[in-house]
């Protein structure tokens, strides 16, 4: 059965087509997908927190409504991704418990504080922008449920990025204090956003296998550099600057290059010692506890429905 399955799997990889949940797959393929998709789902859920803090302090009803819609979208992205991960055999409760117990990774970016309203603009433009750069290739991931989830996620992310860009544009064309607030936010979120793409290629243990299995389509550095190029064009329209004097377009390699990033900081954040790691997990545990009654009510309702159907 395994020999037949392996042959089928190898052909699917060679044809660059899709593996579906019921197909045979190498245990290591299943394991790396569970790893990546569950971490991706956790990122979406934890990612709701920095922005949720600003919903009650939004400067207008329009901004409040847009931010609420964005935060709700992130919850939905988390649910699509937990569902995709569950098709690989791990129950959602287990994934969520691992997150609350501090045993699961989520994107480093969400361990930084959102200090001002302009951070809502910088997060939308830079963090969701980086997410789009990373997630568009994932629409072609070889695992069906993951690739399909990404299509819907990417459509909603482009709204997230555009609303962030618009916040920065408005502030940048506002009073000098507002323009400075926007520039400060861009300065604070630039390096952490670049680190979202993962460690440098020569320090990325999963990349080789992930690319061989058509999960990762481009390397961490390749996407990071592409994203720098995208921001360089858009930051001119914002009349702001990126806090990196080493950014340049290399005419020989035809690639964008940027200044050094603090990978010690990155590893500190991944080790749970970032600026907001503790509070993000504390808030997650509190939200999970506060939601117990919802889960119990939904389970009781489902039980009643299935009893009715059985009658
Ligand atoms: N934050 C936390 N952990 C990270 C990380 C980051 N920014 N970048 C890398 N890591 C971890 C990896 O998970 C891996 O650890 P593990 O083996 O225990 O999982 C280790 O560092 C080495 O990194 P690799 O490059 O070898 O790992 P990958 O091949 O998995 O590449 C990745 C990392 C590019 C983040 C890849 O996992 C990926 O594309 N994930 C899906 C996209 C994603 O998770 N995006 C997060 C943001 S979600 C979001 O932004 C929401 C939006 O709405 C704002």
TrEMBL record:
GO molecular function term, any single one: phenylacetyl-CoA 1,2-epoxidase activity
Enzyme class: oxidoreductase
Cross-referenced Pfam families: PaaA_PaaC
EC number(s) per entry: 1.14.13.149
Keywords: Oxidoreductase
Keyword Oxidoreductase assigned: yes
SUPFAM superfamilies xref list: Ferritin-like
InterPro entries on file: Aromatic_CoA_ox/epox, Ferritin-like, Ferritin-like_SF, PaaA, PaaA_PaaC
Gene3D superfamilies: 1.20.1260.10
Record protein name field: Ring-1,2-phenylacetyl-CoA epoxidase subunit PaaA
Protein source organism: Arthrobacter ginsengisoli
């Amino acid at each position: 059965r395994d020999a037949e399955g392996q042959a089928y799997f190898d052909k699917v990889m060679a044809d660059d087509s899709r593996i579906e949940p019921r197909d045979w797959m190498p245990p290591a393929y299943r394991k790396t997908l569970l790893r990546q998709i569950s971490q991706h789902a956790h990122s979406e859920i934890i990612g709701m927190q920095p922005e949720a803090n600003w919903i009650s302090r939004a400067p207008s009803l329009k901004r409040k409504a847009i931010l609420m819609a964005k935060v709700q979208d992130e919850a939905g992205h988390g649910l699509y991704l937990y569902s995709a991960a569950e098709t690989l055999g791990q129950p959602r409760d287990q994934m969520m418990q691992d997150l609350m117990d501090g045993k699961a990774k989520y994107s480093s970016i969400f361990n930084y504080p959102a200090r001002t309203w302009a951070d809502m603009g910088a997060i939308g433009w830079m963090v969701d922008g980086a997410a789009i750069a990373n997630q568009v290739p994932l629409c072609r991931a070889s695992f069906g449920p993951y690739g399909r989830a990404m299509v819907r996620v990417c459509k909603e992310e482009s709204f997230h990025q555009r609303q962030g860009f618009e916040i920065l544009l408005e502030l940048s064309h506002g009073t000098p204090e507002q323009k400075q607030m926007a520039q400060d936010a861009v300065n604070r979120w630039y390096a952490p956003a670049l680190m979202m793409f993962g460690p440098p290629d020569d320090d990325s243990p999963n990349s080789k296998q992930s690319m061989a299995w058509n999960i990762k389509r481009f390397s961490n550095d390749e996407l990071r550099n592409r994203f720098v190029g995208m921001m360089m064009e858009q930051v001119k329209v914002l009349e702001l600057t990126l806090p990196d004097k080493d950014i340049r377009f290399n005419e020989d390699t035809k690639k964008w290059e940027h200044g050094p990033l603090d990978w010690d900081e990155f590893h500190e954040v991944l080790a749970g010692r970032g600026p907001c790691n503790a509070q993000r997990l504390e808030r997650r545990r509190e939200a999970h506890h506060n939601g117990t009654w919802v889960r119990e009510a939904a389970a009781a309702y489902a039980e009643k429905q299935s009893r009715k159907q059985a009658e």
